[in-house]
Amino acid sequence: MTQPFDPSALFGGGAGGDNPMAGLLQQAQAMQQQLINAQNEIAATEVTGTAGNGLVTVTGNGTGEITAITIDPKVVDPDDVETLQDLVLGALADLSQKRETLAGEKMGPLAGGLGGGLPGLG
Questions:
Q1: 28 vs 7, which has greater pLDDT?
Q2: pTM for the complete prediction?
Q3: Taking each helix axis from N to C terminus, what angle separates 20-44 and 81-114, rounded to the nearest 10 degrees?
């Protein structure tokens, strides 16, 4: 005589077994919390980009907001505005690079844990 089909057997539930779907859901929730924590940490981190050996400094946060620009008076030359513009652009590029590095450090382990299996998250 055959036993009746038990759909919970497909998922490891019932008959005293653990439900792997519940474990997967817990892992997903833990990763989501880690992702939120990492995003909050990135947003709260102050990042500074510099150019010209510190003659121009641009400060911002991890979300892309610029919070301060400092320009050493030595580089303010009305006859050479291009150099100052180049220094400001260089400091902004440095800031952008440092933000990307910060995001990679904070988010990299989380993205790696997803294994690229979820679209848009790898």
A1: 28
A2: 0.62
A3: 160
